[in-house]
Amino acid sequence: MSTAHWRVAHAFNSTLPGWLVILPTRHLLALTEILPEAAGELGGLLHRLSRALEQVTGCTKTYLMQFSEAEGFSHLHVHVVPRMPDQPDDRCGPAVFGYLVDDEQQYLPAAERDRVACGVRTAMEQLAQ
Fold first, then answer.
1. Tell me: the pLDDT tens digits for 35-90?
2. CA distance linking residue 24 with residue 75, whole number of Å
3. CA-CA distance, 1 to 125, in Å (whole number)?
4. Which own/partner pairs from 41-45 qualify as long-range (CB within 8 Å, at least 24 positions apart)?
5. Across-strand partners of 81?
């Protein structure tokens, strides 16, 4: 899904259903580079995505993270990650990044990513009504 200033995608290298990434439609390196209208849009988008993830995944809350420092990923991107009710302690808080893996064999299957993404899109459309 996309808006005037943002694109949302399911993370390809996640083992956790619902790990979303928000990317700006123009190249940015830091939050301070966001135009005021894009910043306003981001706030509402984060709120609606969090509500949609609750509906689709049954999460109890969402984590929001923005570091933009990993090699090859220094551009601005925001992670919106579901915090599941049965999530193990060793995957809570910053340790949630343990759900991102390098081994393609462990990635959440594309069909599951698509199913969750379509569910989030539908929930977002319903929230807009």
1. 999 999 999 999 999 999 999 999 999 999 998 876 766 789 999 999 999 999 99
2. 9
3. 11
4. 41/3, 41/4, 41/5, 41/6, 42/5, 42/6, 42/78, 45/3, 45/6, 45/8
5. 63
